[in-house]
Write a structure and sequence with these properties.
The complex is a heterodimer. By secondary structure, chain A is an all-alpha fold. Chain A contains 20 helices and 2 strands. Chain A has helices at 2-8, 22-40, 46-74, 88-114, 121-138, 142-160, 167-198, 203-212, 219-236, 244-251, 254-279, 284-307, 312-333, 336-363, 379-382, 384-398, 404-418, 422-446, 464-482, 485-493; strands at residues 77-79, 84-86. Classes of the chains: A mainly alpha, B mainly alpha. Chains A and B meet through helix 6, helix 7 and helix 10 of A and helix 1, helix 2 and helix 3 of B.
Chain lengths: 498, 101
């Protein structure tokens, strides 16, 4: 009865604002085009598939730019019955993830051709995974956050096991799947407990409830919050939830590893920042110490264990863990500066890590097997430009001045000092010193002089698409490192809705 | 006799714990897989109980989303398991030892 009445009055009509989620739709649309196209034609055109992916990523980037202007004029947009919100923060992550898609597609195309895996599957899964990541960044409801996380992860499980002839690839997929499913279940239980104690899954409603009700006994709420932190901590590889990272990064196809490190980490942090900094703002005193402990553990474990690795992919995996620690430092500050620092860090890291893994892809040669540090000996004589690019990207990751990596570390540490976390800031700087050691070790190996009895060098093939991706990543790392103004302004204005 | 909501919540917490512990101590991949399902369904029970206690339809709607996601996860997970263990007789996680360091 009631339902019929309200339906008659048109109350049940929920407007769907497609224009608000244009970048997400562009990625999903690209994936559907690829699937339809490849099933209608008999010949496999690897270059065409990569082109569609790059164009979809570019359209998503353009859509994000339009949304940015629209938000600047009219303020944040709430869409889909308040389940999705497009604020500056969401648009920033749309930009980061679109860039990751374009770069991963360029490197992935070269990889697929070399390994005889040409087909649309890689690109389709890449686009779908990225659409899930964007959805996470726009989520204004915990259930949308969960759905976005699953869309991101399920496609990534398959991508991790994409190289059918490498047993390590399947093993990486299996490990990622089991731990990913475990962490999603924990996250979901956290959502259930938060729902039970606040009566809603909508982030704005939860924030209003928490601001209006001072709970005497909020054990349920705190348990839910911790489970949410654990679930998202797995995705961003924060210690002690990082066990899967080295194995999965090592076993996955190299371009997939790069995408995982850039986009999956960014999406995980999008969820963490939105849920904790804006929604759980009133519980700040409860979660800030936990995040601080996680940040210290992540920084130290990541940096120290990276030093003892001899496999370059495992080394970069531990380095990605320590980078997550710096973003956690920004999150712990829970201030505007902290968020801006974390966002700048994630954007800078996207370029650095995708560039680094592009070089690892090339050096691994056919079969994707040469990941030992020794494979890099003499790279400077074999391919001077490649060695120089890797040097720039590794120095940026180490935080050498005049690169984005230095500024990124500087902004998050400055935010920590601002909010009075001096110990955390000191540990972050200490971790940077330890981390510099293993980046420099790789550089030294690359520039090692020729030893007696070295085999004559076979010149490494560098495909054009990888070259393009490297030019873009190195140019961004250096240019923004010298002139950070516009990009840091972008990060500062990418604020949360409340 | 009526059973209070708390009883269901405790049952769900127990099921979730059994699933989580099982996932960590069992070595058979298929059993680990079932443990994940157990955890997700424990969450579903929690959602339905809370929805009933709060008199809010939202929690019940969530269960459908979770069911769909769980189904998608099963498809991908079983695909990966079949791909790995096609060439082997058992399906234990201890066979996965190529990646370490």
């Amino acid at each position: 009865m009631m339902l019929a009445q309200t339906a008659n009055q048109g109350q049940l009509r929920i407007p769907v604002e497609y224009s608000a989620v244009l970048p997400v739709l562009a990625l999903i649309g690209g994936a559907l085009v690829l699937l339809t196209w490849s099933s209608l034609t008999r010949h496999r055109r690897a270059g065409g598939y990569a082109l569609v992916t790059v164009v979809s990523g570019a359209v998503a980037l353009g859509g994000a730019w339009r949304l940015w202007n629209r938000i600047g004029d009219h303020g944040p947009i709430r869409a889909m019955a308040d389940a999705v919100v497009i604020d500056g923060f969401a648009v920033f992550f749309m930009v980061v993830i679109s860039i990751a898609v374009v770069l991963a597609a360029l490197v992935g195309d070269a990889y697929l051709r070399r390994e005889d895996l040409e087909g649309p599957e890689f690109h389709v899964l890449l686009l779908l995974s990225a659409s899930g990541g964007m959805l996470m960044a726009t989520a204004n409801d915990l259930i949308v956050l969960f759905l976005g996380l699953e869309i991101l992860s399920i496609a990534l499980y398959v991508l991790a096991g994409f190289h059918g002839r490498r047993q390590q690839s399947y093993e990486a997929a299996m490990k990622y799947f089991v731990l990913g499913a475990f962490s999603s279940a924990l996250l979901l239980y956290g959502i259930a407990l938060v729902y039970g104690s606040t009566g809603s899954t909508n982030l704005a409603t939860i924030a209003t409830y928490l601001a209006g009700n001072v709970a005497v006994d909020n054990g349920l709420m705190l348990a839910g919050m911790v489970l949410l932190l654990v679930g998202l901590g797995f995705k961003v590889a924060a210690v002690p939830f990082h066990m899967w990272t080295p194995d999965v990064y090592q076993g996955s196809p190299t371009p997939v590893t790069g995408f995982m490190a850039a986009a999956a980490k960014a999406a995980g942090f999008a969820g963490l920042l939105r849920v904790f900094v804006s929604t759980f703002d009133t519980l700040k005193l409860d979660w800030q110490p936990i995040i601080a402990v996680l940040a210290v553990a992540t920084l130290l474990v990541g940096s120290v264990l990276a030093v003892v690795q001899t496999d370059i992919k495992r080394m970069l995996a531990y380095s990605s863990i320590s980078h997550a620690g710096y973003v956690l430092v920004g999150l712990q500050a829970a201030s505007k500066r902290g968020i801006a620092g974390a966002l700048f860090y994630l954007l800078a890291y996207t370029f650095m890590v995708l560039g680094s893994f592009a070089i690892v892809t090339v050096v691994a040669r056919r079969g994707d097997a040469d990941h030992d540090l020794e494979s890099y000996r003499g790279l400077a004589r074999n391919r001077p430009a490649l060695a120089l690019a890797f040097t720039v990207l590794l120095m940026a990751q180490a935080g050498i001045p005049f690169t984005t990596g230095f500024l990124a570390k500087f902004y998050v540490i400055a935010a920590a000092v601002d909010s009075g976390s001096y110990v955390l800031a000191t540990i972050a700087m200490l971790a940077a010193v330890i981390a510099a050691f293993f980046y420099l070790r790789v550089i030294l190996v690359m520039y090692a002089p020729a030893a007696e009895g070295d085999e004559p060098l076979v010149r490494l093939p560098v495909p054009r698409t990888v070259g393009l991706a490297l030019v873009v990543t190195v140019a961004f790392t250096v240019a923004v490192g010298l002139l950070p103004g516009p990009v840091i302004d972008f990060a500062r204005h990418a604020t949360l809705i409340f | 006799m009526t059973v209070g909501g708390e009883a269901y919540l405790i049952l769900a917490a127990l099921l979730f714990t059994i699933g989580a512990v099982g996932l960590m101590i069992r070595r058979n991949v298929l059993v680990m897989f079932m443990c994940v399902e157990l955890m997700l369904n424990a969450v579903n029970l929690t959602f339905v109980t809370f929805a009933r206690m709060l008199n809010d339809i939202g929690g019940q709607a969530v269960v459908f989303f979770v069911l769909v996601v769980a189904a998608a996860e099963v498809v991908v997970g079983l695909g990966i398991i079949v791909a790995i263990f096609r060439r082997r007789s058992g399906a234990t996680a201890d066979d996965l030892h190529l990646l370490k360091g």
